[in-house]
Amino acid sequence: MPLNHGPSNAVLQVVLVVFVLLVFTAGIVWLLQEKLLFFNAFPLGHKTPSLNPRGIRNPGERGTPYRDVSITTRDGYRLNAWLLLQDDPLAVPTFIFFHGNAGNMGFHLNHADHIRRAAGVNVLLLDYRGYGNSEGTPTEKGVYADADAALDFLLNSSLVDSENIFAFGHSLGGAVAIDLASRRGNELKGVVVENTFTSLRDMVHTVCGFTRQLNWLLNIIQRMKLESEEKVRRLNIPVLFISGGKDSLVPPSQMDKLYHACTSNFKWRLDVPNGEHNDTWLAAGPVYGESIEEFIEASIAASTQAWKNEAAAGASARRDDIASTDDSAGRTEGETREKMASSSSLERRRYALPDAFTASESGRSYNSADEENQELTPENPLPSSRDGGTQRMTPEDPSPSSSIKLSTMVFALLILALLMRRKLVKSRAVSQRTEGEDVQELPSSTVDLPYMDLKTTDLRELLPPGSFFFPSYGEVDTASEASNPASAPVEPAVEEPDVEHLDASTS
């Protein structure tokens, strides 16, 4: 009996192909989701800091005082870190810098050292497990454990003041910092997050818009969650949200959601309209460091036991309010400010932008000569500049249009489609032979896979600069390098934190 090759059979074949593609993609995501997020060997050929370009191989090349330290996690892995120091490290706070998902810590040295210089703090810059010279393989639980180890190191160190520790996180690092603060906030003075996301699921939807219709499948195959929006609701310590208005990787609307979801009575936000994902700290100019300084001062002042008791009570009341309205962002701005003002006993502060400043590194200039002094309070955002400076971000900020940026997945789907086509062609030829027809089999050259020379440079050309999976890195701070000769000595490794005395002349 001849086979039916009508429309119903064609539809069945299409459904089969779609099903196979779906299963194949799900399998790839299940097996490789850590590799799709943690680019610990990127760029190729620069796995460890020693292989980086000159100027970001170690802080000594920039003339930055530092200690090369080794930190052991609770599960036995050794992490490599740089402790960037001030002249008197015991007299200033210390920031733990959690970097983004791509590249070893050397590629984030410019940013970390800028915070050290601009805010006058020490900075512990570490490589997660599997990054740089750190042992292990990166996972979600693993990077959380690395954050615990970094905090433990500083709490038991005589190199810095263990009473004044802050967490800082950029992009992926923001999720790590929020997780640490949600669990061990009583051991931190505050947390700063910059251009981070609400959850990994939301980022998947941003990168691959079609996955919004496949949440049922993601619930099955997605191991990593990174649910910062849920965790930020548990914070009761000071929080500063820094957002770049031109961030094309993490939509600014996600930072807005985090800000509104945060239940801390003491939260600030610094919005930089011209800031992109990796250069917000440059685009903000001097306001960046000055804002962090103000945040540090207010956070330390707010760390009294009386404030903690009030903050806990206020946070509980706000959680009840959120539960009753089921949408914290639904309150008007005036209601939010009134509620925060009534629940906070922090002294109001005066903060004025400088008359004029220029961010020469990013080519953007700011002028605030006619800007009046603004009050910097827990219920107010950080001050704004009328001419391209920092502004309050509104909840209506549109997010970038969704697009598929996983080029490797597209190539994989293309290859699978060609394979399926070859199978279907051969299957149809065999079925036609069974009907007694004289059909000549197509030559294999017409269905063989084309040759693809898959290089990293090819993928980067397909993606926009600064992709979430292939981020761009800023240029080496040549001005800082010129003012700080590269002849500065590299400090010996410090295996244990219990050092009795730090000689400022060797730091």
Overall description:
- It comes from Eimeria mitis.
- GO terms for molecular function: palmitoyl-(protein) hydrolase activity.
- Residues 312-403, 478-507 are annotated as: Disordered.
- Residues 95-227 form the Serine aminopeptidase S33 domain.
- The protein contains 15 helices and 13 strands.
- It has helices spanning 7-37, 109-119, 140-155, 172-184, 200-207, 215-221, 228-232, 252-261, 280-283, 286-301, 305-325, 333-343, 407-434, 456-462, 478-483, and strands spanning 66-72, 78-84, 94-98, 122-126, 165-170, 190-194, 239-244, 267-272, 349-351, 356-359, 364-367, 374-376, 493-494.
- The strands form three sheets. Strands 8-7-6-5-3-4-2-1-13 form a nine-stranded mixed beta sheet, sandwiched between helices. A two-stranded antiparallel ribbon has the order 9-12.
- The protein is globular.
